[in-house]
Amino acid sequence: LPDKPSIAVLPFNNMSGDTSQDYLGDGLTENIIAVLATSPNLFVISRNSSFTYKGKAVKVQEVAEQLGVRYVLEGSVQRSGEKLRVTAQLVDAVDGKHLWAERYDRKLDDLFAVQDEITNKIFYEMHVTLTIGQRSKDWQKHFGDPEGMRLHMKGFDRFLTFTIEGHHDAERIYGELYKKNPDGGMGNLDMGWIHWAKIVMRLTDDPMQSIKLGREFGEKAHAVMGDGNSLTLLAWFDLFERDYESAIENARRATEISPSDGEATAIAGTVYRNSGKPEESA
After folding, report:
1. 8 A C-beta contact, residue 170 and residue 202
2. Which has the closest alpha carbon to 210: 231, 227, 192, 224?
3. What is residue 113's predicted lDDT score, i.e. its pLDDT?
4. Do 228 and 215 contact (CB within 8 A), yes or no?
5. What CATH superfamily is the domain 139-280?
6. What is the spatial distance between Cα 216 and Cα 181, in angstroms, rounded to a whole number?
7. For domain 6-131, which architecture applies?
8. Full-model pTM
9. CA–CA separation, 261 vs 139, rounded Å?
């Protein structure tokens, strides 16, 4: 299996019995595959491979084995007049366990808008279930919309390369997220980390200005979200300015707010060591 969650999206079944309505399920399935495939955190089987199972009664375990995935998303579409009902469920093919299921009832006044809404909800739920877990639930309200979460994850993937090209890509993508919602917590937090990276990677001609801007983004993010991650960012800027007392305080508060966050704990350890208190980094 791939080294990240692997998933196949089977063609959603048309429950109306009218083959002329197949386009509803087919269109939704294609939309879901296309959007899930944009995530760097998922391995998604292509549309051509998934659609070979259209109209066939197959076991989830067989599909998973043949396509080399662990998870299978399946569902159905049923139309009644101008009403649309969509059901979807995620199955772990290893043990057959149902990990998630949902039903969506919508009016068909705008088919594309309905497809996009349901697709975005499924994209979000797949990441809650398969990748970043509860943290995505905490983040969601600070993105503004599901597209915001997609931008964050796409940018984060480039950010983690720690290459000049990756940094520029992340800065551009995070900039899009920030422009979409300049008052949102996550957009500000991501921009703060961009300025941190400029200093660490020596990509700035004015480190003090980068610290100033990064701190402003971090403070605004924390004011909005009250999270631990923004405090670890601020602790880094404190270290850069050799304000060890403030760095230790921000690191301590970060671990209190997010005690199970390994990233916050690790960064706190770095802060303690660099602040001359290595005994507290253990």
Report:
1. no
2. 192
3. 86
4. no
5. Tetratricopeptide repeat domain (1.25.40.10)
6. 16
7. 3-Layer(aba) Sandwich (3.40)
8. 0.66
9. 14
